[in-house]
Specification:
2 strands, mainly alpha, membrane, two-stranded antiparallel ribbon, transmembrane, transmembrane helix
């Protein structure tokens, strides 16, 4: 089953060569923005009525964009409502459902496609951040050691596994309109969570995570990955159930 799912996911990945390239380049650009902030934060402080908003903005950039790295977010359905409303992913699944392929293989292939995308875009994004931080280490490594930075990345990766595992379900288990508007719903939820964090803790989410990384160390990274794996597995099973009960004809 796994072999068939990997073959199917790899074949489709090759067919999406252009969106992969554009998404890869966009991930590098986002990495440049965050890496530049970490290396020289004074250049990226945004003020409103003399109040620094940098932690709030960085939370939005890092957490707000996190689910995107498990999708080809530079593909047409994500960029154009007109493209999304024609349900391209649902139509593709209708074709796949007409083939003699088990539902478990189809669902697993969607999850593997997501993981392939996540690994590729994370290399572009995190690789760019790491390159800038290592090239200009004076400020950043006064805040976190190299080990703590690595643990922070693991925590971030586990979060994407948890949230990003939802993307195959949205793409193939819902419809194009839901796919197009879900990022706006996610940002709205994140905005409310941000306000709550600042009300109760007077800190950004990433600031709190950084403190936990410093105090607890690698166990919080391991916990994040475990939660991510469980979340990814759960979304895969929900997608398989959805494929068995949704009419794609």
């Amino acid at each position: 089953m796994v072999k068939d799912a990997v073959w199917l996911a790899a074949k489709e990945y090759k067919q999406h060569f252009i969106p992969v390239i554009f998404t890869f380049l966009a991930s590098i650009v986002l990495g440049l923005i965050i890496g530049s902030y970490l290396a020289k934060p004074d250049h990226f402080i945004i003020k409103f009525n003399a109040t620094p908003l940098t932690p709030f903005v960085i939370d939005f950039i890092l957490i707000g964009t996190a689910p995107a790295f498990s999708t080809l977010f530079m593909s047409k359905p994500y960029l154009s409502y007109n493209s999304a409303k024609h349900n391209p992913y649902v139509k593709r699944m209708a074709v796949l459902r007409s083939l003699p392929i088990r539902l478990s293989v189809l669902a697993l292939s969607r999850t593997i496609f997501m993981l392939m995308t996540l690994l590729t875009m994370s290399i572009a994004y995190l690789g760019t951040i790491a390159f800038i931080v290592i090239t200009f280490p004076d400020h950043f490594f006064q805040l976190l050691t190299a080990g703590e930075f690595f643990t922070f990345i693991i925590v971030w990766f586990g979060f994407i596994l948890t949230i990003g595992g939802m993307n195959p379900y949205i793409e193939y288990g819902t419809n194009g309109k839901t796919l197009h508007f879900m990022p706006f719903i996610y940002i709205g939820i994140l905005f409310m969570v941000e306000i709550m964090f600042y009300q109760f803790f007077n800190q950004g989410i990433l600031e709190i995570i950084s403190e936990l990384v410093e105090k607890i160390g690698w166990p919080i990274g391991a916990l994040s990955i475990i939660i991510g794996i469980i979340g990814c597995y759960g979304w895969n099973k929900l997608l398989e159930y959805r494929l068995a009960n949704k009419d794609y004809m």
